[in-house]
Amino acid sequence: MLTIKGLSKTYRTGDSALKNVSLTVPGGQIIGLIGPSGAGKSTLIRCINRLVEPTSGQVLLGDIDLTRLGGAGLRVQRRRIGMIFQEYALVERLTVMENVLSGRLGYVPFWRSWTRRFPGEDIQRAWALLDRVGLMDHANKRADTLSGGQRQRVGIARALAQAPELLLIDEPTASLDPRTSRQIMRLLTELCAERQLPAIVNIHDVPLARQFVQRLIGLRAGEVVFDGPPEALDEAMLTHIYGEEEWQTNAPEEDDAPPAPAMPEARALAS
């Protein structure tokens, strides 16, 4: 379980990226972070694994407060957090298998990582993950020969190779076509359910988030203004999160849009 208490981030310029964010993510639940650009979505994800240093607050993974750790202690705890990136962050010249095995680098001695000689159990784990994400036939291909959807599947397998207790996922479908985006989101939800793995997904595609995640967190100017199920996210709440002009710009033209179904009134958590 992940518990965030009063997390804030203020930069030296005085700009506040996060303001007193608190939430709990139980095992197996996928949370979608939505909100306009600059709302603090990526900052929140990066504060959890300390790629960005929070100004105040706590991040508890189980009973370990990640904000109090440094050096070797932080490196050990980061092994418990898998990260999936928008731009895949693969080593292009390495094979698919080698990229997946790089998820085990935090667990092996330096000489093994340097020579890329991994224990047999790590290799077996990598094969099983490649099978699960549908890339068994691509194991020996270089990463730079793959499509975007295949690269994202490699990134997912690499993150799971860590045997993480939490997944942080930053815009996993931003560079993908609609069909591939649905496939990737479906795969992520299935994998989290199979492993009872909590996950936080920073996602810009609201309809896609509504379709696949169990809970949505709406951020605006660094504050949580919505926390609830997708069915509670009506047009009024979307306008509250994104602002009238930006949301209406992204909406379909009135003549082309089907009648909107009645939705329960959403609850604002902050004004």
Automatic annotation (TrEMBL):
It is found in: Cell inner membrane. Gene3D superfamilies: P-loop containing nucleotide triphosphate hydrolases. InterPro entries: AAA+_ATPase, ABC_transporter-like_ATP-bd, ABC_transporter-like_CS, ABC_transpr_PhnC, MetN_ABC_transporter-like, P-loop_NTPase. The keyword Repeat does not apply. The keyword Transmembrane does not apply. Residues 247-257 have a biased composition (Acidic residues). It is a peripheral membrane protein. One of its GO terms (molecular function) is ATP binding. Residues 247-271 are annotated as: Disordered. It holds the Pfam family ABC_tran. Keywords: ATP-binding, Cell membrane, Membrane, Nucleotide-binding, Translocase, Transport. It comes from the Bacteria. Residues 2-246 form the ABC transporter domain. This is Phosphonates import ATP-binding protein PhnC. It comes from Kushneria pakistanensis.
